[in-house]
């Protein structure tokens, strides 16, 4: 079809999902349009938004794509990226709406592949791909257990600790119906760094490069997460145990309910017993928080990183990829660090967290500029403040220093600035 040889422009819509991600790419051809949905999920909606926000956004996506999707991309299985794909038996859930848009292809990271290779030669550090997937599945079950323990811990440990446990526990649930929906709504590709994808064939005139995540055979870095990096992170991350020492006794409420109300007490209200129970619950909550943080970071390091090349324009979508995921693509022995300097549009990683936009990447963007001009870097940030991290510990999301750099050096579309009635805004990039 000659008219579909090359898009004239790309429209990038970012939807107001609160703390989550949802983007629709519309490739505008002379004789038609093709649409790619990248992520659809949320863990916290804005206070002023409708209660069934994702239902409304699903219907909006349906209208915006004219009732047909070319492809769906699920960068990783965190709830704030895939909850909108959940279904119900009535067929009224947002995932049912997306399914009826009949995408031709679904893209997911290799860690979602149900046929993960068993070959130990593809392992890193003695861990096979199959074992790695199994560990992620086990940690999802643990996240559900954490949520079940919150009623006992609430009012007995610092509020900040239970809030983080609740947020991370919810985000790391297995999202079973969404996962099943993604696997069955269209043929799936499970991708890693350097994978070929059919998406380019479905989008004439567009090249799609997969820059992450690497496989365990390519690198073992995604198995670990560094606590700090003065050069790459947007602040020096303090250690978990230092943080715990500063907050362990903050915000403790009085008048606690007894742990076992019906139990007989050998020494009623013994100060020694109360002291022991308090320290025991603190230690238990700290251990749980440490575990769910490990799961959270592991999932982020499995995120797809996609670079769309449309004519002379480069559009970068990294999901929640964190530094360990980025390290492989940004290695100087590979061409991508130099290539990424020419990016025209950057979808800000992980809602603006401190370690998802490496400074090596940001400082390399040659279109980032303090001067507003034609061709300046365009960015989009989908986020909601006050949900994740702490300003006192310089871990808040979005990270203040990164948000300031984005606002000063790029044309920034920030979902936090949307009006109460706005479901989306769009950026147009001519090719």
Q: What's the average pLDDT?
A: 80
Spatial strand arrangement across the major sheet: 6-5-4-3-2-1-13
Task: Specify the structural class.
Answer: alpha/beta
Strand content: 15-25%
Sum up the overall morphology in one term: globular
> Order of helices and strands, N to C?
EEEHEHHEHHHEHEHHEEHHEHEHEE
Task: State the distance separating the first and last CA atoms.
Answer: 19 Å
How many DSSP-defined strands? 13
In DSSP terms, counting alpha (H) and pi (I) runs of 4 or more, how many helices? 13
**Are there runs of 5+ residues with pLDDT below 50, and where?**
118-127, 235-254
Helix content: 25-40%
Largest sheet: 7 strands, mixed
Radius of gyration: 22 Å
Question: In words, what does this structure look like?
Answer:
This protein has about 425 residues and is α/β, with parallel strands linked by helices. The chain is about 30% helix and about 20% strand. It is built from 13 helices and 13 strands. The protein has a 7-stranded mixed β-sheet with strand order 6-5-4-3-2-1-13. Strand 11, helix 13 (about 400-410) and strand 12 (about 410-415) form a beta-alpha-beta unit. Helix 4 runs antiparallel to helix 5 (about 160-170), helix 4 runs antiparallel to helix 9 (about 270-300) and helix 5 (about 160-170) runs parallel beside helix 9. The model is unreliable at about 120-125 and about 235-255 (pLDDT under 50).
Strand and helix map with partners:
Layout (H helix, E strand, L loop, with lengths): L8 E7 L3 E11 L2 E13 L8 H12 L6 E3 L5 H4 L11 H6 L5 E5 L19 H25 L5 H13 L4 H9 L3 E4 L7 H4 L3 E7 L27 H8 L23 H30 L4 E6 L2 E5 L5 H8 L5 H4 L5 E3 L11 H6 L13 E4 L18 H10 L1 E4 L9 E7 L1
Parallel strand pairs: 3-4, 4-5, 5-6, 9-10, 10-11, 11-12
Antiparallel strand pairs: 1-2, 1-13, 2-3, 7-8, 8-9
Helix pairs in contact: 4-5, 4-9, 5-9
